[in-house]
Write the structure tokens for this entry.
Amino acid sequence: MVWHSKKIDEIYSSLASGNQGLKSSRVKELQEQHGFNELKAAAKKTVLQIFLSQFINVMGIILILASIVSAFMGETVDSIVIMALVFFNAVLSTVQEVKAEQSLEALEKMSAPNAKVIRDGIQAVIPAKELVAGDIVILETGDYVPADMRLTEFASLKIQESALTGESLPVEKSDTVLAEDASLGDRVNMAYSSSLVTYGRGKGIVVEIGMNTEVGKIASMLQNTKDTETPMQKRLDALGKTLVKAALIICVVIFIIGELYGRPAVEMFMTAVSLAVAAIPEGLPAISTVVLALGVQRMVKRNAIVRTLPAVETLGSATVICSDKTGTLTQNKMTVVKYALPSFNGAKEISDFNETELLRAAVLCIDAKMLQDRPIGDPTEIALLEMGINHKMDKNETESEFPRVAELPFDSERKLMTTVHKNGNEFYVYTKGGLDEILSICSKDSIDTEKRQNILKINESMASGALRVLAFACKRMDSMPEDLKTLESELQFMGIVGMIDPPRQEAKDAVEKCHEAGIIPVMITGDHAITASAIARDLGILSENGRVLTGAELEKINDDELFKMVESISVYARVSPEHKVRIVDAWQKHGNVVAMTGDGVNDAPALKSADIGCAMGQVGTDVAKDASDLILVDDNFATIVSAVEEGRRIYDNILKTVSFLLACNVGEILVIFTATLLNWATPLLPIHILLINLVTDGLPALAMGVDPPESDIMKRKAKKSQEIFSKDLIHRTLYQGVMIGMLTIAAFLIGMRTSIIAAQTMAFSVLALSQIVHSFNFHSKTKSILKDPPFKNIYLFGAAIVSILIVTACITLPGLNSLMKLEPLSNYNLVTVILLSLLPLPIVEFMKFLGLNSVKDEK
Ligand code: ADP
Ligand code: MG
């Protein structure tokens, strides 16, 4: 269908729609007939594919080879046990991966775009997916166009269509009927799905949905591949590869030593396999993914939707949070409390207000309106709407007398908004905006120097009382000018109003938390410097020696100068969104990890360049959300801080599991290496090592992933560099690995006095059990376990119990124990095993007591 060359009435009748929108019953029918308005995504990996991919890695291949070789050597039982363990591990990893994927998918759904639709004559916000052809949709600045539409209303509407046409400048839309062969880029009466509204407002009728839209036709080209691996996961992968290489070298060394001792090649092969198994931390990648996914779910409960996994990690290391004032640090519930006219010399309470012209301007020059007795729109404008209601100036009545014929929408660059209304043969122009901006477009004779000084003084007194000040001006004309831009000149000054926007209660506590955590909060606002400082001081963001910088001052200094002073500035006032990028850059050059909030179209560049872009969930535009890493469901500053806390905890917990699993591997290597070097019998068979690495260690490691945060997690200073393999972690992993290894060797030597099988059983039991006991040492690096409630993490208890039962079953259950080449222990040996296995607790406690469990990193 060539929609752009049809008249609007033709389109209305061909789609059986009209200005009032479709009937909901009709919508249902259409959805059933034509399906939903969505692009078919690229085929996802099936569960079977995920399962099979578990075998295609170094570890899987080594083990499958080992199993085949054992089978050829007649060790059928070994071969089967190895295969069973590999299989079990693959099932476990698949379950984890699928679950992680599901929770990420759920997140994606939460941040899916909405559309403002008119149905049955009523405006509502619905998921864009539910649109059908014939729906009437309203477009506002910052929206993504949700489907292909023929436009019916245009208020300075500009749309950026670069994804479709390659044209990077926004296209001004207008109402004409076009020739049939007009190219996509020339169709100014259409709006195409997934292009974005950069300016103005508009309305239109949906003509194509889903795969029939222009973007649907090229959908396969646009499948964006987002990087979902986090920096830490990448480093873990790299670590895995290094360990594989190290394992191969150790294997060769062991082989050579074995040859020198003249031991049989078969035995040496199995030993080498055990070692390879011991060296590779097979559980790590799966566990880190699960810990991240669980953390992401918990963040949702705290109103923070993470859009990319890497953001979880970056969050934990945030050192600066740059936040908008209005709505994030304040409640965004505004009420007009004071006003002043040019003739006054002081601010008056709003209660005795009755200036008709100013009231009329207040209700006419706004886009906010009452919808079923509820005000909707920008809070600043709702305050004006309500001021009108309280003073008997109804917006609808006034507007029917003074219908709007033109407008220049508000943008945070100009800080002005203008509307033109027709009354009789006259045109009334009303402009509202920041005081300085309004004064600069008023005619000289409308406000003399004295009145101007007077107004500025009143403004200052209002602003220092934390009031947001809005000024009004007007003029009358006999005809509309050619160029709408001339509307904002030669105006008559009308007066100012001051509105209060109380700070959020939680924001104060969150700022305090930031200070304790070594995170610097910075306020950024388009509001007046004095208003901003008053609120910043109240919230604790602006201290005695903190500085306030205005957008005008920022314009005057270059990036080097900003770099030098950025650390002393806590409040930026009267800034435009484009300034935000410079602020982010300056902080980043000092090595900081910067979080930045934003809501508008113009905020997108800053959100992208920040390490953590945080978009407002409620007032944020689609564009801002799309550019962000984190969506604040409640638009709240405190939510960023709790997300940081959650990020720190996730980071901590992944480090705990890394350190825990690696300590076990170090212990295993030590045992095998010592045994080979000293020409002992093999203390641990490959199947023993596999069982421990894949099962009895994996469960506690997983439980550690949900460890509650340390009580002082937000009292720790933020570190600028986050290195996984810090000196501290290596120190702890090595000494604890040696501890586990020595306990196992001791058990083996004691067991040798009974028999080789008894010795192997003891080595296996102590290795498995001491690790389980050791897992309780990780709640804190420095504090004794006695200082924490022992039942701090019940999952860890559960995991420990299950793991202990598995170890017990492998030793005592007839049949199973012969499969595992283990045997029940004598009482004496059993007591020895228990005592040795409990030792990690007192040893690590003692190290904590000496202050040796954790070493200071250089940085
Ligand atoms: P912020 O969101 O940081 O408070 P804005 O960019 O929304 O900053 O607003 C900056 C200034 O623009 C305000 O101080 C006010 O003077 C003016 N302003 C805000 N909203 C409107 C509006 N809807 N119409 C006209 N002027 C406005
Ligand atoms: Mg704002």
In short: The radius of gyration is 34 Å. The pocket of magnesium ion (ligand 2) is lined by residues 326 (CB under 6 Å).
